[in-house]
Design a protein that fits this description.
4 strands
């Protein structure tokens, strides 16, 4: 029997967001597939706030120990903060033998041949995004240098107010 970890995340706790909206559908999906729920992980934090996404970090720790076979999320944006983050995390999950499925995005299923192909497309896109970003940052730094700006952190003396 497939052991499934469920992950739900709401960005803030002050907008009456309730992770049960996600979890109810995920539980029903697991039951309909006749799978076993390993554990539910819930975070109340923005996707970019990894310091407060303690359940996400715990989930990855359990995945690295192969405690479950499949990670089921409501949507990709509930789990990942960017395409690059998704690609990196998917690669780690694959290395641990853990599949990933998105409930609301059925095309994302790394346990199927089609989902596997889409996974590789996602990784290729992430590499493209990284290259474009690197080029853009380099161009900005070159422009700043030509304008006479110092690139990098201020020296210790400058931070302390000395010239």
């Amino acid at each position: 029997m497939i052991k499934v970890a469920l992950y739900a995340r709401v960005s803030t706790s002050d907008k009456e967001q309730n992770p049960e909206t996600q979890l109810l559908a995920l539980r029903e999906f697991v039951q309909a597939q006749d799978w076993e729920t390993f554990r539910e992980y819930v975070d109340f934090a923005p996707a970019t706030d990894l310091a407060h996404r303690t359940q996400w970090r715990e989930l990855l720790e359990q995945a690295s120990r192969r405690k479950f076979d499949l990670l089921l999320v409501w949507r990709m944006d509930r789990a990942f903060r960017s395409v690059l983050d998704a690609a990196t995390t998917l690669e780690r999950l694959r290395g641990w033998g853990v599949g990933l499925r998105s409930y609301a995005e059925p095309w994302l299923d790394t346990t199927s041949p089609f989902g596997e192909a889409l996974y590789y497309i996602t990784v290729a896109y992430a590499q493209l995004e990284r290259g474009i970003l690197r080029k853009r940052v380099g161009s900005g730094m070159e422009r700043a240098r030509k304008q006479g700006r110092r690139i990098g952190r201020p020296s210790v003396w400058a931070r302390k107010g000395f010239k």
